[in-house]
Amino acid sequence: MRIRIVDAFTDRPFSGNPAGVLLLDSFPEDAWLQQVAAEVNLSETAFAHPLPPGGEADWALRWFTPTTEVDMCGHATLATAHVLHTTGTATGTVRFAARCGILSATAEPDGTLTLDFPTSSLTRVDTPEGLAKALGAEPVAVHDTASHIGDLVVELRDEGTVRALAPDFAALAVLSGRGIIATAIADRPEGAYQFVSRGFFPAVGIDEDPVTGSAHTALAPYWSARFGRDELTGFQGGARTGIVRTRLRGDRTLLNGHAVTVIDGELHG
């Protein structure tokens, strides 16, 4: 069985966010999917199979962390679309049926892929007790996305504060539904990117996710409102980093980036 490892939201190997991708004829038992994801041991492993023609989607798509299935994942969707296009399995726009609804990925002339995801709603909340201590930084503002992706978006003072974070992951695991997205305005917003972020998801088995596409469905409306424009670029990551270009389209958010296949092999099991 063919398995690929794809670095997403980057144009060079060993950067961005790696995801496992398996194209199947159908979905086996959930226990097997979870075992494979645990063996791959990346933030997410994506499993996809083709759907009958004429429906609202072309492929069924699921994502698993090493410990659980998740409702939405951007980088593994980008990785799956990359595999479909680079292998000639698909061209143009590919539609995916996922737990969070119908998603799509479109191949662009410049070699990038654009994902079409639902925009996350944001609700201002009080800073949860213990959050500042667990992060190691005092929040400027906290917003909840519980009705959508289940993260807390935590604005911090500046880019340097975000980059320097060394959280207490055990403490963070009990402070949100899915994870914590720490973010700040870029030091030079007139430059290559306008905001920075890091994503921490210990509650679902991922201490830090290098480049979280789904988080940008909340970061895009958050920072677009601040900048007064619909198109922005975000920089995410700690040890590994990547770039996500965002376009806000009302209840949909477009996420654009590159992807690179770094491993193409056989899965035995």
Automatic annotation (TrEMBL):
The active site is at E44. GO terms for cellular component: cytoplasm. One of its GO terms (molecular function) is isomerase activity. Keywords: Isomerase. NCBIfam families: PhzF_family. Belongs to the PhzF family. This is Oxidoreductase. It comes from Streptomyces showdoensis.
